[in-house]
C-alpha cells in the first residue's frame, strides 16, 4: 500500500480559511441535524416517512438504543472541528487532506435527516450512500497519509472510524426500509433469508475495512466497534418486539462478532509482519 508522507509546513491563508469554515460549518451542520431529528421538539427521525426507519420497520432495523451512538459521534465531530481549528495545526498534512471531506460528511448527514423528514425514503438512500462514499474517501486518505501530531491524528482517526462504521450499518437498514416502502421487500427470498444475506454482506464489509485499514488501528478498531454495536442491536431488536426472528438475530450476532474481531486480527497480523 502506498503511504503518503505527512509533512507540516508553513500555514497559508488557505489553511486559515479552511479552519474557520470547517469549524463554523460543523457547528451549523450539527445544529441542523439536531433540529431535524427532533432534539428541539417536532417529529423525530423514527416517526418521519411514516415510520419507515423506526426500530420495528424491517428485520434489519437496529433497536432504538443503538441510535445513542449518534451522541458519541456528534461529540467526536465537534471535538475534531475544534482541534483542527487550533492555530498550531493549521498546516497539519492529515487535516489538510480530510477536513473538507469531513465537513461534507456532516452536511450530508444533515441533508439525510432533512430528506427523511420530507418523507422521501428513496432520496435518503441516495444521500446515505453518498455519505458512505465521502467517509470512505476520508478513510483512504487517512490510511495513506502518515500520522502527524498525536492529538489531531488520534481525534481524526477515531472520529472517522466510529462515523463510517455506524453509517455503514445504517445504510443496510436504510436500503431495507426503502425496499419495504417500494414494495420490493423480500426480493423473492423471504424476509428471513434476505436479511441474513444482507447481514453476511455487512460482515464481509467489516472485514474489508479491517484489511484495508490494518496499518491504522486507531481508525480500524473504531470502525469495527461501531459496526459491531449496530449489528448487535439488530440482533437484539429481533429477540423482542413485533419482529421477533431468531434466525436473523443469530446472524446479526455472528456478524457483530466478525466486525468486532476482524480489525483486531488484521492489526495483530500487520504488526507481526
UniProtKB/TrEMBL annotation:
Keywords: Membrane, Transmembrane, Transmembrane helix
Residues annotated as signal peptide: none
InterPro entries: TspO/MBR-related_sf
Transmembrane segments: 20-40, 67-86, 98-115, 121-140, 161-182, 194-212, 219-236, 248-270
PANTHER family, alphabetized: SI:CH211-161H7.5-RELATED, XK-RELATED PROTEIN
Protein name: Tryptophan-rich sensory protein
Amino acid at each position: 500500500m502506498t503511504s503518503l508522507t505527512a509533512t507540516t509546513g508553513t500555514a497559508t491563508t488557505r489553511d486559515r480559511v479552511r479552519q474557520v469554515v470547517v469549524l463554523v460549518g460543523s457547528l451549523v451542520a450539527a445544529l441542523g441535524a439536531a433540529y431535524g431529528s427532533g432534539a428541539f421538539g417536532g417529529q423525530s427521525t423514527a416517526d418521519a416517512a411514516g415510520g419507515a426507519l423506526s426500530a420495528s420497520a424491517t428485520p434489519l432495523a437496529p433497536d432504538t438504543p443503538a441510535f445513542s451512538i449518534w451522541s458519541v459521534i456528534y461529540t467526536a465531530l465537534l471535538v475534531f472541528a475544534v482541534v483542527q481549528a487550533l492555530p498550531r495545526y493549521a498546516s497539519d498534512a492529515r487535516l489538510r487532506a480530510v477536513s473538507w471531506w469531513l465537513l461534507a460528511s456532516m452536511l450530508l448527514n444533515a441533508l439525510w435527516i432533512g430528506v427523511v423528514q420530507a418523507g422521501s425514503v428513496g432520496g435518503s438512500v441516495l444521500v446515505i450512500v453518498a455519505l458512505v462514499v465521502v467517509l470512505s474517501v476520508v478513510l483512504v486518505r487517512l490510511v495513506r497519509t502518515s500520522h502527524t501530531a498525536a492529538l489531531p491524528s488520534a481525534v481524526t482517526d477515531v472520529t472517522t472510524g466510529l462515523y463510517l462504521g455506524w453509517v455503514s450499518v445504517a445504510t443496510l437498514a436504510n436500503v431495507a426500509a426503502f425496499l419495504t416502502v417500494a414494495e420490493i421487500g423480500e426480493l423473492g427470498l423471504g424476509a428471513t433469508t434476505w436479511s441474513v444475506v444482507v447481514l453476511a454482506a455487512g460482515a464481509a464489509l467489516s472485514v474489508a475495512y479491517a484489511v484495508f485499514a490494518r496499518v491504522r488501528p486507531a481508525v480500524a478498531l473504531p470502525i469495527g466497534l461501531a459496526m459491531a454495536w449496530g449489528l448487535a442491536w439488530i440482533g437484539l431488536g429481533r429477540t423482542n418486539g413485533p419482529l421477533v426472528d431468531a434466525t436473523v438475530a443469530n446472524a446479526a450476532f455472528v456478524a457483530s462478532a466478525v466486525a468486532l474481531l476482524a480489525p483486531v486480527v488484521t492489526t495483530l497480523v500487520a504488526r507481526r509482519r
